[in-house]
């Protein structure tokens, strides 16, 4: 991503082809769990046993999802691949969303994040439409990418969303995110999501660049797990 997004690190070895493939087949499993109908309980139990065995082969025992940190990310170059929106290594991500950073013609000298993809069954809210909370998550991510690309990383202070039209599942969507203005450590950004020529939803975000003292405080656990004194970029 470093060529497309100024300031981003090159892809890290964490996202190997094998890990990306595992994430993709896990997404298939998630969608199958969400959409399979008229399956006998005995078949569901048999699949659950096989999934449990596969997990044990990966981590040596039944996975604990509540024990805290494992992999300690250093920066967006490390943890963006784990993103629940665009992460190639995250089974929670749709696995369909690709993004790029381009010149923002409406704001000369700045960059705009453009993301395209399809939201699938796991992200359904109203029947056949994307859950509003999933749209908020996607907005938070693309806004964050736009902020970083412009050299203004920050933590979300507030996110305001206006739902104009239902956003369809299984249809091509396009997100655009950009910075409106920067006031000291406060970054004001906006984003939209479109289906073809229809504006479905838009967002305004306020992002705060934490002071160095707060960065050290917020990310103490990450620094301890990583074994150094550098806090990751926000």
Summary of the model, kept short:
The protein has 234 residues and is an alpha+beta fold. The protein has helices at residues 17-35, 41-59, 76-79, 132-149, 212-218, 220-226, and strands at residues 98-103, 111-117, 155-163, 173-183, 186-195, 198-208.
Kindly describe this structure.
This protein is α+β, with helices and mostly antiparallel strands and 234 residues long. The protein contains 6 helices and 6 strands. It has helices spanning 17-35, 41-59, 76-79, 132-149, 212-218, 220-226; strands spanning 98-103, 111-117, 155-163, 173-183, 186-195, 198-208. The chain has a 6-stranded antiparallel beta sheet, covered by helices on one side. The radius of gyration is 19 Å and the shape is globular. The chain starts with 16 loop residues before the first helix and ends in an 8-residue tail after the last helix. Mean pLDDT is 85; it is low at 1-10.
Question: Which features does this protein show?
Answer:
234 residues, six-stranded antiparallel beta sheet, alpha+beta
Radius of gyration: 19 Å
What share of the residues lie within helices? 25-40%
Oligomeric state of shown chains: single chain
Distance between the termini: 18 Å
Q: Specify the structural class.
A: alpha+beta
Q: What coarse outline follows from CA principal-axis ratios? A: globular
The number of helices is 6
Main beta-sheet strand count, sense and barrel state: 6 strands, antiparallel
Low-confidence segments: 1-10
Strand content: 15-25%
Q: Give the overall pLDDT as a whole number.
A: 85
Question: Which strand order does the major sheet show?
Answer: 1-2-4-5-6-3
Strand/helix succession: HHHEEHEEEEHH
Number of strands: 6
């Amino acid at each position: 991503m470093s060529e497309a997004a100024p300031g981003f690190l090159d892809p890290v070895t964490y996202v190997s082809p094998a890990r990306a493939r595992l994430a993709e087949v896990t997404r298939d499993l998630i969608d199958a769990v969400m959409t399979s109908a008229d399956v006998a309980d005995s078949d569901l139990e048999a699949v659950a046993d096989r999934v449990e065995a596969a997990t044990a082969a990966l981590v040596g025992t039944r996975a604990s999802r509540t024990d805290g940190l494992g992999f300690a990310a250093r920066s967006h170059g490390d943890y963006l691949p784990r993103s629940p929106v665009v992460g190639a290594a995250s089974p929670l991500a749709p696995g369909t969303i690709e993004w790029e950073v381009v010149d923002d013609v409406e704001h000369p000298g700045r960059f705009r994040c453009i993301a395209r993809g399809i939201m699938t069954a796991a992200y359904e809210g109203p029947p056949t439409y994307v859950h509003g909370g999933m749209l908020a998550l996607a907005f938070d991510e693309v806004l964050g990418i736009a902020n970083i690309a412009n050299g203004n990383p920050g933590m979300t202070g507030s996110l305001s969303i206006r739902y104009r039209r239902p956003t369809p599942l299984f249809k091509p969507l396009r997100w655009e995110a950009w910075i409106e203005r920067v006031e000291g450590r406060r970054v004001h950004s906006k984003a939209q999501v479109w289906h073809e020529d229809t504006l479905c939803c838009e967002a305004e975000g306020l992002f705060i660049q934490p002071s160095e003292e707060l960065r050290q405080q917020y990310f103490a656990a990450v620094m301890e797990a990583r074994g150094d004194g550098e806090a990751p970029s926000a």
